[in-house]
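Hey L., structure's done. Input below.
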Amino acid sequence: MEAVLSAVGGAGLVLRDGRVRAAADTGPPAALRDAAARVRADLDGAPFAAPGAARLAELGLGPRELAVLDRAGELLRVAPEVVLGPDAPERAVAALDGLDGAFTVSAAREVLGSSRRVVVPLLELLARRGLTVRMPDGTHRLR
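Output:
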């Protein structure tokens, strides 16, 4: 969705995907968009198997590049070197919905088919977004 906003200082602004951008903003450079597409392709079969540091380096994705792709909505950075597809929170909630009541990190790890390196920051992200609640006993529950 895109809405044209009032011009500020002669520059046209648009509201695109919930973010205010310059009308001429084309997003990240093509090389970064291509690298993000390759990461998303890697995640197709296993959406919570975040690529490791070696794979990110192979694709030329360091901290700055990951920040750009996160801001653009191309990837979701759940921790400094843990990136998933932009739809990961919704997919995680759908998968975790199959668990009855409160669940542990270990149970979430099994359901999501991922590692602790990915699941812990993902659960923290879900809690910050109000999708889960961490219980006093350390378990988690969907809202």
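The radius of gyration is 17 Å. Helices lie at 30-43, 53-58, 63-72, 88-96, 105-112, 116-128.

-- N.
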